[in-house]
Amino acid sequence: MNGITLTLRALHHGERQLAKELIVIAERHSTEHEVHHVAKDLVAWSNEHCLRLAETAGHYGLDLDGPSQTSTSGLLPTIREKTAEAIGHRPEPGLLLLRDLRELHLGAAGNSLYWEMLAQAGQAAKDTRLLELAASCHPQTLRQMRWTNTMVKNLSPQILTSL
Q: Residue 42 maps to which CATH number?
């Protein structure tokens, strides 16, 4: 296994993990409508990245699965949503939301670094397949990071000073 396949595998894992976290956070914070809806929308990007990575990995002799099953229906998501509704808008859920947004940001940042590494490897190897993959997916990862950063900036003052 070479560095490109290791990076493809690590990035695929990171995108799958980010998709799972986005679903959990969307359910956990269902009373925060922007978080709930945007997080659910961002899952589609990570799932698309997983599919594209799995497709590309095949050209390098690597077998990767598609996106993980990120269902928003079933017993566990329903329990999370009902718990979020019951808790309401007490300060503790605000701190949990900030922590969750921080974790999402760090996950997206890690993926962003892998996309950059993949692009650099593609450029060095003159591999247009890697360059095109990184050029089409990395901007969405950067947008995921900008969204989490903006949410933290907007929510921190009110949440942290109301305790």
A: 1.20.1260.10
